[in-house]
Design a protein that fits this description.
The protein contains ten helices and no strands. The protein has helices at about 1-20, 25-35, 35-45, 45-70, 85-95, 100-105, 110-125, 140-160, 165-180, 180-190.
Length: about 200
């Protein structure tokens, strides 16, 4: 059963990369995975059921990570919470699931990006504010969108790098970026494109 699932997942990733989910057929999946159509239909109704299975599996695992581990503390010494927090564990998990996760986060037919964004929003909403200074007239919905979209975009960008950085390196970038203002990030970009003396 496990061997069949592994073959099916590899075939799914390969074919969606080659053709896109919309042009994927169960026949192509079963031929590429070298399994019978009967075996496929024993476990899944159709390709949409398979897609939902992959999405739900990853989203359930991420929800479990956010439930089991604390959110990292902003402005804390980096070594203090290096491995015992939800976001570091999230990067570790996604690294091990990188082929499938990168595919689902980019695939228009997939709802995984939206589901993960909702999970991150719920973690953000339940967190304790890190400081008392707040811009009171800034709309909270926009703030939430900026933060959650930024995290999702960073994850997608990270998973599509060649080679994919280690979870530790990606987490360091994530944590460090949270301490930088947009102006500081812009200056990093500008300086990186200036000719060296």
């Amino acid at each position: 059963m496990l061997e069949t699932e592994i073959k099916l997942q590899k075939a799914f990733i390969t074919l969606v990369h080659q053709r896109g989910f919309d042009h994927l057929s169960v026949q192509q999946l079963t031929q590429t995975a070298a399994i019978s159509r009967g075996t496929f239909y024993l476990h899944y109704l159709d390709k949409y059921d398979l897609l939902a299975h992959y999405e739900n599996s990853i989203v359930t695992d991420i929800a479990d990570i956010f439930r089991r581990y604390p959110k990292p503390v902003q402005h804390a010494p980096k070594a203090a919470d290096a491995e015992n927090n939800a976001f570091y564990q999230l990067f570790k998990y996604l690294y091990h699931q990188r082929d499938l996760a990168a595919l689902l986060l980019n695939e228009p037919a997939s709802q995984m990006g939206t589901k993960v964004k909702e999970l991150i929003s719920s973690v953000l909403i339940s967190a304790t504010p890190q400081s008392a200074d707040t811009v009171h007239d800034f709309p909270p919905a926009f703030a939430q969108e900026i933060v959650t979209k930024g995290i999702i975009d960073l994850i997608i960008f990270w998973l599509h790098q060649e080679p994919v950085l280690s979870p530790k390196a990606a987490y360091w970038i994530f944590q460090t970026s949270r301490d930088l203002t947009p102006a500081q990030l812009s200056n990093i970009v500008i300086r990186s494109h200036q000719p060296r003396a």
